[in-house]
Specification:
The complex is a heterodimer of chains A (134) and B (107). Chain A is an alpha/beta fold. Chain A has a single domain, classed as DsrEFH-like (Hypothetical Protein Ychn, Chain: A), CATH 3.40.1260. In chain A, 20% of the residues lie in helices and 24% in strands. Chain A contains 3 helices and 7 strands. In chain A, strand 1, helix 1 (19-30) and strand 2 (36-41) form a beta-alpha-beta unit. Chain B is globular and about 40 Å long. Chain B has one domain (3-97): Orthogonal Bundle (Arc Repressor Mutant, subunit A), CATH 1.10.10. Chain B has helices spanning 23-32, 39-55, 61-72, 79-85, 90-97; strands spanning 3-4, 7-8. Chain B has a two-stranded antiparallel sheet with strand order 1-2. In chain B, a hairpin with a 2-residue loop joins strand 1 (3-4) and strand 2. Classes of the chains: A alpha/beta (134), B mainly alpha (107). The A-B interface holds A 25, 28-29, 31-32, 61-63, 65-66, 68-69, 72-73 and B 54-57, 59-60, 62-63, 66-67, 104-105.
Chain lengths: 134, 107
């Protein structure tokens, strides 16, 4: 089976609807198939990666912790829209410091999150074989 | 609804409420599968519980084998070893004993 480029585009806030959690579940299942997987976050989707989420008051699972596991699933390309962050008064410093371990570099921890402009993001999207939007 | 030591389980034997879990429940579940839990079983069960606590998911088998090998020695970081402990699958059976939900993507 040849490898295809999959991008999962996340555009909604983490809680309130089930889209964000469902997207993450699909990503985890797809991770078993050894494809080239990347995740993109824009609009309210950028809130999914914000550090320090606490769901105690809304009775939902705080699945933001799960993003930290994705490096072990060889998912280490998180693209975040710079414009979407700025529009919400956020910056790269507000996001979770997600990392992955590079097996070919003595397991050095490397950052997974990359803030990119919408122009760069649309270029990345055009390079994909499959783009799934949540 | 079926229960194990008073804790409710679903039709596949997984705990309905993760908070109900006790070591005695794990022992009882294992007994039902004709397994006596050894030190090695507990290493995996405790690892699964810690992993779930940290990441809110059960690890995929390939992630589990890699992590077990890293933590407990290379000779244990393979699915043959894990299946020798949990013949019905380290993910499915191990997670059930550990009181976790069935792993995502596990059939």
């Amino acid at each position: 089976m040849s490898t295809k480029k999959f991008m999962y585009l996340n555009r909604r806030a983490p809680y309130g609807t089930v889209y964000a959690l469902e997207s993450l579940e699909v990503v985890l299942i797809a991770a078993a198939f050894d494809q080239d997987v990347s995740l993109a976050f824009m609009d309210d989707g950028v809130y999914q990666l914000v550090e320090g989420q606490n769901t105690d008051g809304i009775g939902m699972k705080n699945f933001s912790k799960t993003f930290h596991a994705l490096g072990d699933y060889d998912i280490n390309q998180f693209f975040v829209s710079a414009e979407s962050l700025t529009e919400r008064g956020l910056s790269a410093d507000d996001l979770m410091p997600l990392v992955w371990e590079d097996e070919d570099d003595d397991w050095a921890e490397k950052p997974s999150v990359k803030v990119v402009s919408n122009v760069e993001l649309s270029k990345l999207m055009s390079e994909q074989d499959v783009c799934l939007s949540f | 609804m079926a229960d194990i030591l008073g804790a409710e389980v679903d039709e596949e034997g997984f705990l309905v409420d993760l908070k109900d879990w006790t070591k005695e429940i794990a022992v009882e579940m294992a007994k039902g599968d004709d397994i006596e839990l050894s030190e090695e079983h507990w290493d995996v069960i405790n690892f699964l519980r810690d992993y779930f606590e940290e990441y809110q998911i059960a690890p995929a088998v390939r992630v589990l084998t890699k992590a077990i090998g890293k933590q407990f020695g290379k000779e244990k970081g393979n699915s043959k070893y894990l299946y020798s402990l949990f013949p019905y699958g380290p993910g499915k059976q191990g997670c059930r004993f550990a009181g976790l939900p069935k792993p995502t993507g596990c059939i």
